[in-house]
Specification:
636 residues, alpha/beta, Alpha-Beta Plaits, TIM Barrel, 3 domains, 23 helices, 14 strands, 59% helix
Length: 636
């Protein structure tokens, strides 16, 4: 009951949004009110001049002087209030306190004017129209808290009644009119207040939904972009530097799997609050999932300290799961007022995000600043993404073949197809560069489908020329199984071909990340007669689990196992154990990265079935491969 009374009487606190809403409403009311007063006072001044010039009324000089002064003063005050209201509604840079001071002064003057003019009229015949008009203006157009309205109205009516009574006693009808008007004005002011309050709170709720992240309560990207654009334009005009920061909670997916989504959401909420507190001088927002952004308008900002504080907070929340905060930073330094426009907010956030992504594999680095080197990498990455389709159509992407050698005979027994991009602008692009970019932007399936088409085309060409093509293995990305039905595509592409000619390679990391979906596709391919190889065995931490859950025809040992061969004594027994494991599981073994005769001899001695590496041949074009075959450099 007490809370209801506090709300009804207007003692409840208002949020900043509600205060701004009511201020805007009051400024609109004051503008309308002052415009009307300006019009009336101008008309009254003209009328008084007419009385002076044409003697249309019998008025004393004292009456004319008094009223003319009142009209002029009220016209000046109304004009001043009109200008202030107009400027506020246009710019909205005044504080709530400033607005209330102006409104209060204007209301006091208006009420005083109404009281005085009506008192003069009352002495001539109980006319109180001016008083009622000004009081209704002040109390019914301006939004006051109810208890303030009660005080203002009671004081105004009390003062007016006392003045009138000092002249001569009011009639019963006048007393009743004053009392009913006082009650009606209070009811109208209370109703007006509650109506505006409800409108403001409703709009605030809608505003929060549209500008705040539903989970964490901090700003969403829609609101962030709007605020950031304003800050960017201001910085651009004054040649200041802004700092964009991108935050990524690394390994958050594992945290969710271990503790569940409820606890994961709690961690996100706490980190959101921590980021907002650390960068309270700027703008912060949740970008998506476990990604956040911040924008700071500071020339020199000690972000290292704030990042350290955030990582400390994250450590307190991580439990038994290792988490760390990766941060990308982009400074807008160099933006000058040279007639150009500031860059797009999304692009600037992407640069900070790109910087964070560049330290993904660096466990000892928590942040990275976007520089010219990263800018060039990002430019090349965007070039790759935007030119993929043209590269396919124009033939800039080709298939190179690397021979796979039967370890026992030393002869080529199959080939591995590898994509190469020979670009007219950048030349030969590194596979690691364009494959990484295509996977990041989820376009890798386009490349892999194209490679399958090219390989099948080469196989058909060999068969049509009466030759016996070697089996060719193609690498599939884990994303192929998410972005398209790659199994169906391969089956349809190989119609009319013996399935022995095309071999499918799947990395063990892909199987560990997409067990159900990818596992079904692998099973379907094997049922259709395709050989399926496990690629990069040992590159991750789940190899044995993969062998437990799936069946493969061949296991490709990751080339990093041969790094340091001859120096690391642990390599030999590990490789021997892997070869024995393949025999037990009825799989063939293939070792990648063979570069020396010593490595080849050892692998052959322990029973490794196949080998591949620069000792025999690097990846070459189909034409060069045929030449090597014809010249006897690679016996088949």
């Amino acid at each position: 009951m007490a809370e209801k009374f506090k709300r009804w009487a207007g003692f409840d606190p208002h949020s900043q949004y509600v205060r701004n809403y009511i201020d805007s409403s009051n400024m609109k009311a004051a503008m309308c009110m002052s415009f009307f007063v300006m019009f009336v006072e101008a008309w009254m001044i003209l009328r008084t001049f007419a009385i002076i010039l044409f003697k249309i009324e019998n008025r004393s000089q004292e009456w004319i002087r008094t009223h003319m002064c009142l009209y002029v003063v009220m016209l000046i005050i109304a004009t001043t209030m009109f200008v202030f209201s107009y400027r506020y509604l246009r710019v909205k840079k005044r504080s709530h306190k400033t607005v209330m001071i102006w409104v209060s002064i204007y209301s006091l003057i208006s009420a005083t004017f109404g009281i005085y003019v009506s008192f003069l009229d009352y002495t001539k015949g109980e006319q109180i129209l001016s008083f009622i008009t000004m009081v209704l203006f002040v109390e019914c157009l301006i939004v006051w808290r109810p208890y303030v309205s009660f005080v203002i109205l009671t004081a105004s009516f009390g003062v007016f009644y006392a003045l009138c009574a000092s002249a001569f006693p009011a009639t019963v009808a006048t007393k009743i009119n004053l009392f009913t008007t006082w009650v009606a004005a209070i009811m109208i002011s209370v109703s007006n207040y509650n109506q505006r309050l409800n409108e403001a709170q409703k709009d605030q709720g809608l505003e929060e939904i549209s500008t705040h992240d539903e989970l964490t309560g901090i700003s969403n990207m829609r609101h962030f972009r709007k605020r950031a654009q304003f800050m960017l334009q201001n910085a651009f005009e004054h040649e200041r530097t802004l700092t964009f920061m991108f935050f990524d909670i690394e390994n958050f997916k594992t945290y969710n799997e271990r503790y569940g989504f409820i606890r994961g959401n709690e961690l996100l909420c706490k980190m959101a609050v921590a980021i907002k507190d650390e960068f309270a001088v700027g703008e912060t927002a949740r970008l998506s999932d476990d990604h956040f952004v911040a924008l700071v308008d500071e020339e020199e900002y000690a972000y290292e300290k704030h990042i350290e504080n955030l990582n400390r907070t994250l450590k307190e929340l991580e439990g038994d799961t290792y988490l760390r905060l990766r941060v990308g930073i982009y400074h807008t330094e160099g933006m000058k007022k040279d007639g150009s426009e500031p860059e797009d907010i999304n692009l600037l956030c992407d640069r900070a995000r790109f910087a964070a992504g560049s330290i993904k594999q660096m466990a000892d680095v928590s942040y990275c600043i976007y520089d010219e080197k990263l800018h060039e990498q990002q430019r090349r990455k965007r070039y790759i993404i935007s030119h993929l389709d043209n590269a396919v159509v124009d033939g800039h992407i080709q298939v190179y073949y690397q021979p796979i050698i039967d370890a026992e005979t030393g002869k080529v027994c199959s080939l591995e197809a590898l994509a190469r991009w020979n670009d007219p602008v950048y030349g030969l692009l590194s596979p690691g560069e364009f494959i990484e970019a295509l996977e990041e932007f989820r376009l890798i399936h386009k490349l892999d489908k194209y490679v399958v088409d090219l390989v099948c085309g080469d196989i058909r060409d060999e068969l049509e020329n009466g030759k016996h093509p070697l089996p060719v293995s193609v690498n599939l990305s884990r994303l192929d199984f998410e972005l398209c039905d790659i199994a169906k595509i391969i089956i349809d592409t190989t119609k009319g071909l013996d399935r022995k000619y095309l071999v499918i390679e799947v990395t063990e990391s892909a199987l560990s990340m997409n067990q159900s979906q990818l596992g079904d596709a692998v099973g379907k391919l094997r049922e259709e007669g395709f050989s399926v190889w496990l690629d990069d065995f040992g590159s991750g931490y789940s190899s044995l689990n993969v062998l437990k859950d799936y069946s493969f025809d061949l296991l490709k040992i990751d080339m990093r196992f041969l790094e340091g061969f001859g120096k690391n004594e642990n390599l030999r027994p590990i490789l021997e154990t892997i070869i024995e494991l393949c025999e037990v599981l009825n799989m063939k073994a293939l070792a990648e990265g063979v570069e020396t005769q010593q490595e080849y001899d050892f692998l052959k001695s322990i029973g490794c079935d196949r080998v591949q590496g620069y000792l025999f041949s690097k990846p070459v074009t189909r034409v060069d491969l045929k030449t090597m075959f014809n010249e006897g450099k690679l016996p088949v």
